[in-house]
Design brief:
By secondary structure, the chain is of the alpha/beta class. It has 2 domains: 27-56 and 306-393, Aspartate Aminotransferase, domain 1, CATH 3.90.1150; 71-301, Type I PLP-dependent aspartate aminotransferase-like (Major domain) (Aspartate Aminotransferase, domain 2, 3-Layer(aba) Sandwich). The protein has helices at 5-13, 46-49, 58-68, 81-94, 105-122, 143-148, 152-155, 173-178, 205-216, 237-241, 267-270, 286-301, 304-325, 348-357, 380-393; strands spanning 25-29, 32-35, 40-43, 98-102, 130-134, 165-168, 184-189, 192-193, 199-200, 219-223, 247-250, 261-265, 330-336, 339-344, 360-361, 363-365, 369-372. The protein binds pyridoxal-5'-phosphate (PLP).
């Protein structure tokens, strides 16, 4: 196929469910990617928080090759060392007790919602089945996940949706906690909302929700699909916020770009699932799990968490300087670690287009928020380049 034909064929023959940018990527190395014409870009989005240790990290690539040459798939009918090593790592570093592996963030949330309901059902609380989520949240596109996603546009046209979901604004902490009544099976929260425009949970909210859940016995689920695994400068986002949930869902950055999801649960919450209660064919794939183990051990052993905090301080300071220069264009800068949103008062899509033309990849979420999720392998010089491109664009 000729180079320009790719985009034409994709537009005509592949479902148009994504608003793709007119860029065809063919190669990546570290924080950089190249398009089909050889143009180089600094990737400040990491495939939406996936390639956190950069493209084709040599240690992870080696682990993938080794596993691919050894055993590609086993099914979940047998024991498989890569998934067991990974589960051990997640338990040792995450402080929860049991892991379920799946393939994506939506699937991890689906598992969490099912686990919460079955947990109460097993205890005889058959009406304790309501899932409470936060306005403007995003939890994925499968039915339970999109019903928990409190965004009409995501749900439109898919009725009838599963029953037993309700939503609250998290700015009014008291009202939010009051909604955690006896019928609530679980509260699902992104500690930092990603798709919603990089909003950090209001101070005190997570602590108050934890207390309210403890009072009624509702389970607390943290959706760390986007904000987990290093983004905050801690391995798990809950460790940054210092509020421990009963269930954590992970995906995106777990295997540095290979598809994998995970649900971590406390011993107590995990009692919800018994033999045959849940499953997925490709969950715990040995290649994805080997990649994830190499990814997460490198993240810890090469001291990336400390580096993320330093880079974050530098990036935030640089963006704040930019805001001082362009107060009319930059409304607010939000975020933690390397998960930053720049809310613009000018047309964010135009700004992004200009950034792309100048060799910087990011994206726009919640209409006018420039979302920056750079890989942890960037250097200060990359931040200088990115901020300079945004400055010139503004
Ligand atoms: C917080 C959060 N949860 C869940 C999902 C869904 O993940 P996936 O696209 O892997 O199903 C996303 C994806 O953007 C997300 O940001």
């Amino acid at each position: 196929m000729m180079t320009n034909d790719y985009q034409t064929f994709d537009k005509t023959n592949v479902f148009n469910t994504y608003a793709r940018y007119p860029i065809t990527l063919v190669k990546g190395e570290g924080a950089y990617v190249w398009d089909i014409h050889g143009k180089k870009y600094l990737d400040f989005l990491s495939g939406i928080s996936c390639t956190s240790l950069g493209h084709c990290h040599p240690t992870i690539t080696a682990a993938i090759i080794k596993q691919a040459q050894t055993l590609l798939h086993t099914s979940n009918l047998y024991y498989s060392p890569p998934s067991i090593e990974l589960a051990k790592f997640l338990i040792e570093h995450g402080g929860l007790d049991k892991i379920f592996f799946c393939n994506s963030g939506a699937e991890a949330n689906e598992a969490a919602i099912k686990l919460a309901r079955k947990y109460h059902w097993r205890k005889g609380a058959k009406n304790k089945n309501v899932i409470l989520s936060v306005d403007h949240s995003f939890h994925g596109r499968t039915f339970a996940a999109l019903t928990a996603t409190a965004k009409p546009a995501i749900q439109e046209g898919f009725a009838p949706l599963p029953l037993g979901f309700k939503y609250e604004d998290w700015d009014d902490i008291h009202k939010f906690c009051q909604a955690i009544d006896e019928n609530v099976a679980a509260v699902i929260i992104e500690p930092i909302q990603g798709e919603g425009g990089i909003h950090v949970a209001p101070p005190g909210l997570l602590e108050a929700v934890r207390t309210a859940c403890d009072k009624t016995g509702a389970l607390l689920i943290f959706d760390e699909v986007q904000c987990g695994l290093g983004r905050t400068g801690e391995l798990f986002a809950y460790q940054y916020f210092k509020v421990k949930p009963d269930i954590i869902t992970l995906a995106k950055g777990i295997a540095n770009g290979l598809p994998l999801g995970a649900m971590c649960a406390t011993e107590q919450a995990a009692t919800g699932f018994a033999l045959g209660d849940h499953g997925t064919t490709f969950g715990a794939n040995p290649v994805s799990c080997s990649a994830a183990f190499a990814n997460l051990t490198t993240l810890i052993d090469d001291h990336y968490l400390a580096k993320i905090k330093q880079l974050s301080a530098y990036l935030l300071a640089s963006l704040q300087n930019l805001q001082k220069k362009y107060p009319q264009a930059i409304k607010e800068i939000r975020g933690v670690g390397l998960m930053i949103g720049v809310e613009l008062s000018v047309d964010a899509k135009k700004v992004l287009q200009h950034c792309q033309e100048s060799g910087l990849l990011a994206n726009v979420t919640a209409d006018n928020v420039l979302r920056l999720l750079p890989p942890y392998v960037i250097e200060k010089s990359d931040i200088d380049f990115a901020v300079d491109v945004i400055a010139k664009t503004l």
